[in-house]
Amino acid sequence: MPTNSPNSWEARADSHNLYGFTDLPTIHSRGAVVVTHGKGPYIYDTAGRSYLDANSGLWNMVAGFDHQGLIDAAKAQYDRFPGYHAFFGRISDQTVLLSEKLIEVSPFDSGKVFYTNSGSEANDTMVKALWFMFRHEGQPERRKILTRVNAYHGVTAVSASMTGKPYVGTFGLPLPGFIHLTCPHYWRFGAADETEEQFTARLARELEETILREGPETIAGFFAEPVMGAGGAIPPSKGYFQAVQPILKKYGIPFIADEVITGFGRTGEVWGCQTYDFQPDAIISSKNITAGFFPMGAIILGPELAQRIQDASEAVEEFPHGFTASGHPVGCAIALKAIDVILNEGLLDNVRALTPQFEAGMAHLAEKANIGEWRGKGLMGALEAVADKDTKRPFDSSLSVSERIANACTDQGLICRPLGQSIVLAPPFIITPAQMDEMFGKLEKAIDKVFAEVA
Ligand code: PLP
Predict the structure, then answer these.
(1) Residue 120 CA, closest ligand 1 atom number
(2) How far apart (Å, rounded) are the C-alpha atoms in residues 271 and 455?
(3) Which of 1-15, 80-94, 96-110 has the lowest mean pLDDT?
(4) pLDDT (tens digit, 9 = 90+) per residue, 252-294?
(5) Dihedral-angle region of residue 138 (phi above 0 means left; psi in -120 to 50 means alpha; beta otherwise)
(6) Does the N-terminal peptide bond of residue 418 adopt cis geometry, omega within 30 degrees of 0?
(7) Cα separation of 423 and 283, whole Å?
């Protein structure tokens, strides 16, 4: 909230923080929300105001902000053994236990896990692992990476190159060899005379034509989020993964599911690839893996890629890659607890139980004259604002409609995320029906207020 005092938390936050992904003029005038603590799905600022965080932090605080079991697991591991690495054949017992657990809950019968500190690093590492593998298999020219427009895979130089958003251009990215295919969002990118099935078939043709144009022998991998998250909670068009998977197989291109958001329950199954019924060669996990209580990313390799990367490593004696905190014992202990909490303490059940209420709330708001569509899966969804519902014409971007809606939500004690012209919701899995009513009630007020101003 705005304040003129130079000693206010808001002014101090402004003075010494280089904000990432933040609308700076807005934050300079409104002030940052400086958070002190949380309780359940709520966060509290320095003035004691509460906010229902309908984005679970950044999709990740799925067990809420004060889960005692997770806090206890962290404390217990700090008491036992507070830090170690996973280099040189030394590895913590918690890391061993977590890798066993991840393979057990993965869609793979067997495999191997590699740890990072973040989702970006996990994607970056996966690309390097593919380059490494193909090089030692005698195919060093297999380096190109296929992703999609609107994909979000992270912010390191490689994962930002995979990200299909225009802002990566402000860093002079993507690097050469990163190719972005059409976003599988039928409502926005389908042609007027095209059915959803025809749209999917067109995207599959585009994939195959791209592979043939570039040369299959130059392509190292295809990465996809089961539901695009930061692109605006975009589920795939009907049959999309069933259409692309055989093409990738035909040309020997590994298919990597980026499940940083969808992994561990967000779409109502443990994995998004289970929700959409496809079998990737590897899974990228982060965020929910520790319910946001520790920075961690994990690459879960299915049996074939695990073996091939292992063979390549043996050929040169080692896989020369790793982070100081890869497989950190405290992170692993927290992840073991988080997985237990999500799968066995009712969180996944709650996602499934509350999905109908979530869908009904979204469908109700989508009836508004200036909401073009609602989309989503499980407990992730978006409402897309439009100036004209029939033609799907967006609002003039200078009106900042979604940002204004999000600000009007914040003013009422609700956090939701503007992404392009859409408002994205991804509440924590512990949300109650009453809290969900509170979320939709406040969002409706904000939407009505802003549309009355701009429409
Ligand atoms: N992949 C996906 C699908 C994501 O949503 C994100 C972050 O939101 C990332 C990768 C990057 O993860 P991190 O922010 O931990 O680097």
Answers:
(1) 16
(2) 39
(3) 1-15
(4) 999 999 999 999 999 999 999 999 999 999 999 999 999 999 9
(5) left
(6) no
(7) 27
- 3-state SS, 406-438, equals HHHHHHCCEECEEECCEEEECCCCCCCHHHHHH
Atom of ligand 1 nearest to the CA of 259: 3
Dist CA 449 CA 177 (whole Å)? 45
Q: What span, in angstroms and rounded, lies between the C-alpha atoms of 202 and 77?
A: 51
Rounded CA-CA distance 101/116 in Å is: 17
Ligand 1 center from residue 301 Cα (angstroms): 18
Q: Is the CB of 153 under 6 A from ligand 1?
A: yes
Give the Cα separation of 262 and 238 in Å (integer).
18
pLDDT in tens, 291-308: 999 999 999 999 999 999
Q: Is this structure's pTM higher than 0.95? A: yes
- Amino acid symbol at 292: G
Token pair in block for residue 357: 């209420």
Beta-bridge partners for 300 = 113, 283
118 CA → ligand 1 middle, Å = 7
> Order of strands, edge to edge, in the sheet holding 144-148?
112-116, 297-301, 282-285, 255-258, 219-224, 144-148, 178-181
Given a cut of 80, whether residue 195 has pLDDT beyond it is yes
Q: What is the pLDDT of residues 351-375, one digit of tens each?
A: 999 999 999 999 999 999 999 999 9
Residue 3 — pLDDT band, cuts 50, 70, 90?
low
DSSP reduced 3-state for 13 = helix
Per residue in 409-454, pLDDT tens? 999 999 999 999 999 999 999 999 999 999 999 999 999 999 999 9
CA of 123 to the centre of ligand 1 (A): 9
Within its chain, how far is the Cα of 112 from the centroid? 22
Is residue 258 within 8 A of residue 236, CB to CB? The reply is no
**Which parts of 325-386 are beta strand (E)?**
371-377, 380-385
Ligand 1 in reach of 258 Cβ (< 6 A)? yes
- 118 Cβ inside 6 Å of ligand 1: yes
Residue pLDDT, tens place only, 204-214? 999 999 999 99
Domains of the chain as residue ranges with CATH = 33-66+348-454 (3.90.1150.10), 71-345 (3.40.640.10)
Which secondary-structure segment (H or E) carries 351?
Answer: helix 347-365
Average pLDDT over residues 86-91: 96
